[in-house]
Design a protein that fits this description.
single chain; 193 residues; alpha+beta; Ribosomal protein L11, N-terminal domain; 2 domains; 3-stranded antiparallel sheet
Length: 193
Amino acid sequence: MADPTDLQRDLQTLAAELQRLETEYNLFFAGRLARPPQATRARVDVMMKRFDRAHFDSLALRFRFSTLQARYSTFAELWDRGLRAREEGRPGPFPRRPTATTPAPAAPEQILHVASLSEPASEPEKVQSLYEVVMEARRARGEPVVPFHRFADLVREQVASLRQAGSTEVAFRVTVKDGKVNLTAKALKREQA
């Protein structure tokens, strides 16, 4: 393959400059450059005018220049519209970054402990273990601690009410959601014989 001619090298330089100009305008409209890239645009303008007056021996080179010229023309129109819109204080063709922060997605529920009780009076170690997990989680989040006797009464009441509904065993789950400690009681399904 033959070495590229001066005209081919100049077209490669023009393509590189056009790419650079596009990048600088993207940075400007994204807010990373304080001013539009006028020096780079003036340099590309001069190169475009020089090639517009040049004589191309090859149709391939002429086609390449025409493609670059059309691309530059399209981008120049877009950039001018964006600048005009910005000066007039209205939204233009370039999206702006949202000013308000989007709320973070809610944290998933974190399960700390699960225990099943059928008769709290005969399972004091399970009630004590459940109490310790709940109170430790409450202390860690700055929530007040509940006395053990009140907690044990709550557990007995929950088991009694769910047993009246026909359940023989109750599952207690200690979770943390949205920074708060939750204790939930759920009747376990009876096994069918």
